[in-house]
Amino acid sequence: MAKPAVRLEFVERGVFAVLALLVVRAAQVQLLEGRRWAEAAQAQRTERIVLGTARRSRSPRRPTTSASRPTSCAMRRATAR
C-alpha cells in the first residue's frame, strides 16, 4: 500500500487538474463562445403578445324570469312532499 504522503499528492494533483479544466472551459465559454451564447439566450427570451379579449354580454342569451325557473330550494321542497 502506498504511503499517505504519496496518496495525498495524487489526490491534490487530481483536484488541481479538475479545477484547471473547469477554469479553461469557463474561459472558453465566456471569451470564445460568449457572443453565440448571448444570441441564443436572447432568442429564447419570453415574448409578450397582447391578445384581444373575448367579451361577453352581462345578460344571459335566453333571458329567464325568476318565476319561470324554480330555485334549488323550491325544487327540494316540491320533491319532499
Can you tell me about this structure?
This protein has 81 residues and is an all-alpha fold. It has a domain at 1-40. It has 3 helices and no strands. The radius of gyration is 37 Å and the shape is elongated.
Short précis:
This protein has 81 residues and is mostly helical.
Could you tell me how far the N terminus lies from the C terminus, measured between alpha carbons in angstroms?
Answer: 95 Å
The helicity comes to 55-70%
Order of helices and strands: HHH
Any idea what the radius of gyration is? Answer: 37 Å
Name the overall outline.
Answer: elongated
User: What structural category characterises the helix and strand content?
Assistant: mainly alpha
Largest sheet: none
Unreliably modeled segments:
none
* Beta strands, count: 0
* Total number of helices: 3
Mean pLDDT: 80
Strand-residue proportion? under 5%
Note the main attributes of this structure.
single chain; 81 residues; mainly alpha; 3 helices
Strand and helix map with partners:
Blueprint: H1 4-32, H2 34-43, H3 72-80
